[in-house]
Structure formats: structure tokens, C-alpha cells
TrEMBL record:
Pfam families: GreA_GreB (PF01272), GreA_GreB_N (PF03449). The lineage of its organism: Bacteria, Pseudomonadati, Pseudomonadota, Gammaproteobacteria, Pseudomonadales. This is Transcription elongation factor GreA. One of its GO terms (molecular function) is translation elongation factor activity. It comes from Entomomonas moraniae. Belongs to the GreA/GreB family. Residues 83-156 form the Transcription elongation factor GreA/GreB C-terminal domain.
Length: 158
């Protein structure tokens, strides 16, 4: 079975969501279903059907999180020796060689990616282009508008 990379923060976030769903959301929905049952005829009971639908979504999410955590390979980047090479979990400063603009990304697992937080998936085109490269290397990255050259300015293990 394939293991999927995940950062320590990503694993912790999934564990917290799982705990919330199991300890708070699941009992809350169980209570709502019980209260809706007391309202009478289940065939035309919108509250009952809505609560059951939410319960199904919560149970599916719980199974999804449990599967992700059981198939994850959690990588703590802070414990790995700094070599200047771009690897999963590191934070990379890139300089666009056309306009000298600097961009910073952290390379994370697919489920953790959030471009608003400068976290890109390890399977994204940018990450695929820079993983394995070292500080000072120039890489050509294909973007929707064409190709852009970036220099890897700094690789950090934070």
C-alpha cells in the first residue's frame, strides 16, 4: 500500500478534526436524529432526513480522515539535516528572474495545500520542478502563461 507524505502540522490538523467529529459532532447529530424521530411520521419529517444526511456525511469524513492518517508517512522537516536541497516539507524562497519578485512556498501533502497560505502540494507543477534541486539552482517552471525561470534563493527547514 502506498504511503502519502504529510507534515506534522497537517497530521495534527486531521487528528483534531477527527477528534471534533467523533466527540462533538457525532453525538450532536445522534441527539438531533432522536429529537426528530419524536416529531412523528419519518416519511415526511424533513428534520429527520436532514440530520440523517448530515450524519452520513460526518461518518464518511471520519472514514476518510482515518484512511488518510493510516496511509500517511508523517515527515518532520525540522529533524532532517539541512543540505540546501529542496525536499518535502521544506520552505523555499524563489526569485522570478524576469521581474526579481520573490515568492515563498512550503511543499506539503495534497490535503494540506492552500495557496493562500503559500502551501503547495508536492504533486503541483511548481513543486515537481523544484524538488531535488538546490539553493542557487535555476529552474524553468511551466505556468499557464508560458515558462518562467526561477532561482532557488533559500531552502529552510521550519
Amino acid at each position: 500500500m502506498t504511503k502519502f507524505p504529510m507534515t506534522v502540522k497537517g497530521a495534527k490538523a486531521l487528528e483534531e478534526e477527527l477528534k471534533f467529529l467523533k466527540n462533538d459532532r457525532r453525538p450532536e447529530l445522534s441527539k438531533a436524529i432522536g429529537e426528530a424521530r419524536e416529531l412523528g411520521d419519518l416519511k415526511e419529517n424533513a428534520e429527520y432526513h436532514a440530520a440523517r444526511e448530515q450524519q452520513g456525511m460526518v461518518e464518511a469524513r471520519i472514514r476518510d480522515i482515518e484512511a488518510k492518517l493510516s496511509n500517511s508517512h508523517i515527515i518532520d522537516i525540522t529533524t532532517l539535516p539541512h543540505t540546501g536541497r529542496v525536499i518535502f516539507g521544506c520552505t523555499v524562497d524563489l526569485i522570478n528572474l524576469e521581474n526579481d519578485e520573490s515568492t515563498t512556498y512550503q511543499i506539503v501533502g495534497d490535503d494540506e495545500a492552500d495557496i493562500k497560505l503559500s502551501k503547495i502540494s508536492v504533486s503541483s507543477p511548481i513543486a515537481r520542478a523544484i524538488v531535488g534541486k538546490e539553493e542557487g539552482d535555476v529552474v524553468l517552471i511551466r505556468v499557464p502563461s508560458g515558462e518562467v525561470e526561477y532561482e532557488i534563493a533559500e531552502v529552510r527547514h521550519v
